[in-house]
Each structure stands twice: as structure tokens, then as C-alpha cells.
Amino acid sequence: MFDRIREKLNILADAAKYDVSCSSSGGTRKNTNKGLGDSHASGICHTYTEDGRCVSLLKILLTNHCIYDCLFCVSRKSNDVKRAAFTVDEVVELTMNFYRRNYIEGLFLSSGIFKNADFTMERLLLVVKKLRLEQNYNGYIHLKTIPGASDELIKEAGLYADRMSINLEMPTEAGLKLLAPEKNHGEVIKPLAFVQQQISQFTADKKLIKHVPTFVPAGQSTQMVIGATPESDKDIMYTANTFYKNFSLKRVYYSGYVPISNDTRMPILGTQPPLLRENRLYQTDWLMRFYGFKVQEILNDANPNLDIDIDPKLSWAIRNMQHFPVDINTADYKMILRIPGIGVMSAQKIVQARKFGKLRIDQLKKIGVAYNRAKHFIVCLDSPYQLKDYQGTQIKAFILAESQSKYLKTDNNQMILF
Amino acid sequence: MTYIFDGTFQGLLTAVFEWFERKPGKVVLKSTSIFQPEAFVESFTVNTNAEKADRVWAGLQNKLKKDWQRKYYCTYLSEIPEAYNHVFQFTIYIFQNQLGAESNYGNPHVIALAKYAKSVEREKHRMEAFIRFQKTGDGIFYANIDPDFNVLPLISSHFKNRYADQPWVIYDLKRKYGLHYNLTSVEEITISFSNGADKQNLAPVLMDEREALYTTLWKDYFKSANIVARKNTKLHLQHVPKRYWKYLTEKVPI
Questions:
Q1: Helix/strand/coil for A379
Q2: C-alpha of A378 from chain center
Q3: Are A123 and A62 in contact (CB under 8 A)?
Q4: Residue A31 lies in domain
Q5: Which of A43, A72, A183, B188 keeps 20 to 30 A from B129, CA to CA?
Q6: How many domains does chain A have?
């Protein structure tokens, strides 16, 4: 018994780990019934794996049996791996006992498709209902929407889950067709749209009637695999942008492809996952969501891919030197946000602090501005007088010369003599 | 001039009261535990007085919004000697200026409080994440901690709300006190460990019979969730510094 549950957990946790979403934020479920758990609006990462990723949820598949044969997936039908399946009670027990020991914030439940979509969705629904109704569990639940499941099942699941998600898998329809001929983006869009429409329906009702049950309070998210097919960064981010806009997604995740197959259509086994590229895509994502950038400003036909050696914010600034230098003491908040080396927190502090007097360099440093980076783009009370206007490329060279990338192991600016 | 206070929150507030009563000019506040008499500096010992402290706190509540009251208290909980002085100077600055003076991030005491509060809140958040309960034979969920700052007062309500249906104990080994939740309220406790008892690791005989199973399953899960091809030890250590490992089930070797 002991060994069997260990084996199942190993197989089904291993198969679920390529889903990168691990956020436990956005839920505000209160522990009102003197039961177990509540959800923090900000989420909690309870530990981090040795690859540095957050572990917040017990992320497992209900089963890794699957009728599909998607090339990029470890659980594909044709792959020779050990198969297992949890019973509903096993998942409930594991979740409750892990939660009670403060190991996790909640459950992330996904599944391979066995028999058909509705059959699978029904099982997932059983688990969440049991947790919420029988165990008085108020912790976080992230549930996968199974593409093709009936509206009734999805709607019922939404009453118990905090977040639901469906993965786009590939950034473009063409990429998806190449690796998973049985699937298409339309299958994903339909349930995403359905859940979104339900969420706005429930929110509208809430304005009129006080006691409306919550429906997917932490919203929806999706994931794209990066680097398995030859899309450009522009393709990826434009798709992400469309999905943020059309379905009010909370998050789009970008998952660097970890080679798991010998198929010649994809990077071969042993290829390093594209970690730096993934990092740059997330930076772009953040610029879109928190810094007021339009995706077209960062990626366009002239610049279809993100720079590898510098981050997208610096890259934008260097291409648009006509906006700089910015006067810290007079510029509006939106422009201050666009200065490389100044983040959201620093920008807010600057705007508050300058009401009490013009700001100096030492104050900016204390506030948390990365001054060595920002100094090329700003003027403050005691900025040194500069005779010469530097070109964007020169500034880039200055910044690269004094910064150390965590990814690039060799220094590109070093001249090679021999 | 140096003001010496007893290290309590009330003592700190009393010191502010005394300063405004005497107006001695520039003063540095130190706690008794770190005070060393200096030859040419006068010193004054503050007698903690609940009434005076309450008056200062009431005054601060009129001056500061909830978020800054919390930053103020968090900075005190950091137990850092320089932080006490910053809180002291900050209080004087706040009382001597118009409403809203706390958003002047150009002021050294304002930025200091914002920084100390951030460190303390981070430690509080870490404790909410890193505390690992072990279920004992009598059904109590027990956890040891030794946080960098005195965060027990800050985490109490989080655990009370979350684990409303299980009795638990969180014990701060460094500060020798803990919290006990008995299904209705949280109380402060001290435990007198018998001589030679291993405080850090509870003896297996005291454990619930299923505890070993869940410990193993959690360790297994932690291993399975890792993607070897993406190994990034630097990032891992940044998020989970080594000093926390001794209480983390998944990091404790079997």
C-alpha cells in the first residue's frame, strides 16, 4: 500500500511538472466554515525545487493514460512510460494531509484524457467537489479545463475551482498542427471563451444580488511551449497579447521546451532548454502588463526577435533615444516607468517623494533605482553636466561593459587577440 | 545625548514622550542590551510608562495610516539596534511635520523604516511558507522555527484563520516562546524542554503513526517536481537560503 502510493505519486507528479503554472494568487476564499484553509490574495511559494521554480501547489495528473499522441508531451500515447492513475480518494487524502502540514497552498489537478473528454472532466469534478463539500477545504484549487468537455461540467467545476486553465501548447496554429495533428487552437478557444463569459456573468450578477457563489475567482491562464517549433518572439508575444485581450487571462506562461523525444521535427534530446529566451519573453510580458508598453513597441517587423544580450526595456530605450533624458523631478509617472533601471516600486516612491523637494542622486539610489543603468537616461537635481550626447549603441556598450549577465558565460566585448 | 530604553515597544514610545517633554536637542536612542557608557556623552534612562506610551501611540494613529502603523511596528520587531533609533527619529519627524510626511522617501528615516519593514515582512512571509508541521501522537500539529526577526506576533492570525480545525503549536527556539492554538484561541506559551532533549527534532515515538508516510511522500514529490535539465542551484539558494533548511521537511536528509 505504502509503496504503491509512492510509485503513483512519483509517476504522476513527474508527468505534471512540465506545466509551469504554479501561482496560488488571486483567490480570496475565506475560512468561514471553521474548516481547513483559506487563500491568500498574494499566494505563497512553500518551497523551490533545485531548478529554482516555485512549489506552491501539489501539482499532479489524475492519470497519465492518454488517448492523444502529441509529440511534445511526455504522456503521449506512443511514449513508452509507466502509467498510473489515482483514485479520487487518494487525491483528496494527499491534498488534505499535505495542506495540514503547511507543505502546500493547494491542489493543481490536471489529467491525461482517458476514454473521452467528458469522462475525464467528470473525474476531476468529483475530486474538487469532495474537497469542498465533504472536507470543508478552502485552500486553492487550480483545475485544468479538458478541451471538448461539455459546458455543464465546466460550469459546475468553475463553482469549486479558484483558477482554470487550458494550454495553447504551441504559439501558432501551424506549429500545433505540426506536432499534434489531432488538435487545434479552436478547441482551446471555445472553453476559454465559455469560462470567461461565465465569469463576467457572475460578476454582473454580484452587483445586483449579494449572495452569488464565486466562479473561478482567480481567473484563467494558459501556457505555450517555447522553442519546440520555429516561431519568432513576435509570433509568440502577439498571440499572448491577443489572448490577454480577448479572454482577460490572468497569466500566459511560457515554457522553454525540455527535449523529451527523438522525433526529428523537434530539438534533439540533450539540447539545453531555451532558458534565456524564456526569461526575455517573461520580461516582455511584464512590460505589457505592468509598465504600459504596447507589444508593437517592443516587437515589430523591424525587430521580430528580442535581444539576447540586453533586456527588452533597455532595448526599447536604446532604439528610442528621442524620449530621453527624462527629468525625474518633472516627468509623469508613465514616462518614469519606461526608464531602464527603474521599477514600479521605485517609480511610485519617486512620484511621492518629489513633492517634498527635488530629488538628488543619493536619494534615488536609496529609493532603489539601479542608478548605473538609469543614469544614461535621466536628469535629476545634481546630475553631472554632460557635453556630449551619446548614441544608443554607445550606451549599450557602457552598460554591457559593467554588467554581468547571469546567462552569457563569455564576455562578448572582450577582444580576441589570437 | 543618549536615551536608554528597556527594549519594549512601550519603552520606545515612552522615550518619544520624554523627548517632547524635555526637548533636549539631538538624541540617540539605544536599548539597555547594547548600551555602553561613553565618556563625554550624557545618558538618560527612560522609565517605561504605559500611560505615556498609549498617548504617543494614539497621537501616531492620528498621524499615520494603517499601512504605516504596520511598518512602524514591523521595524520595532526587527530587533535591530539601529532600527530602534530610526523609529525614534521617525516619530519625532512625523509629529513635527504636516500630515503625509511619511511619503517623503527622500528622508533617511522614512526610507530606513520602509526597508526594515520590508525585511520583516519578507521574514514573516517566509515563515508562512517554510513552517512545516509534524503531527504528534496526541493530534497536535507542531513546528519549530528560529526566524531572523521576532515575527510570531505577525503570523499568528494567518495560521489561526488557515488551520481553524486543527490544534497547533509554533515554537520560536531562538526567542524561547511560542504560540498554541487550541481550536478557539491562540495563546502564548513557553516550553521547558527536559535536559538533553533534542529540541530540533521531535522523537519519532511522539509522532502520529502516519507522519512518516507523509514526510516520505512530500520528499518524493519534491524530487519528482524538479526538472534536472533546468538545474539552477543559484536561484534555488536565493529563494531557500540554507539557514532555513533545518526545519524544511524536504531538505532534511533522512
A1: strand
A2: 31
A3: yes
A4: 2-274
A5: B188
A6: 2
Closest CA to B208 of B133, B124, B112: B133
Determine contact, residues A63/A114, Cβ cutoff 8 Å: yes
Which of A274, A300, A335 delimits the end of a domain? A274
Helix axes B50-63, B81-96, angle to 10 degrees: 60
Instruction: Please provide residue A48's backbone torsions phi and psi, each rounded to the nearest 5 degrees.
Output: -130, 135
User: Residue A210 contacts by C-beta under 8 Å, 6 or more apart in sequence?
Assistant: none
Least confident of A26-40, A97-111, A222-236: A26-40
d(C-alpha A337, C-alpha A292), whole Å: 8
- Rounded Cα distance, A171 and A237, in Å: 9
Task: For the beta carbon of residue A329, count every other beta carbon within 10 angstroms.
Answer: 16
CB contact under 8 A, B229 and A272: yes
Question: For B215, left (φ over 0), alpha (ψ -120 to 50), or beta?
Answer: alpha
Residue spans per domain, chain B: 2-123, 131-247
Could you say which of A48, A94, A353 has the minimum Cβ distance to residue B240? Answer: A48
- Cα separation, B91 vs A280, in Å, equals 44
Contact A31 B162 (CB under 8 A): yes
Same domain as A361, residue A231: no
User: In 3D, which of B199, B126, B112 has the Cα closest to residue B158?
Assistant: B126
Q: Which chain B residues have a beta carbon less than 8 Å from that of A100? A: 133, 135, 141, 163, 166
Model confidence at A417, pLDDT cuts 50, 70, 90, reads low
pLDDT tier at B201 (50, 70, 90 boundaries)?
confident
Q: Which of A295, A318, A292, A305 is nearest to A376 (CA)?
A: A318
Q: Say how far residue A64 (Cα) sits from the centre of its chain.
A: 23
CA distance B208 to A348: 50
Q: Report the residue from A5, A34, A363 with minimal CB separation from B106.
A: A363
Looking at residue A364, what is its pLDDT? Answer: 95
**pLDDT value at A411 more than 70:** no
For testing contact with chain A, the best of B123, B184, B221, B244 (most A CBs within 10 A):
B221
Peptide bond into A312 cis (omega under 30): no
Q: Is A2 helix (H, G, I), strand (E, B) or coil?
A: helix
Would strands B177-181 and B168-172 be described as parallel, antiparallel, or unpaired? antiparallel
3-state secondary structure of A318: helix
Q: Is residue A417 part of a domain?
A: no
Would you call B230 and A51 a contact, using CB atoms and an 8 Å cutoff?
Answer: yes
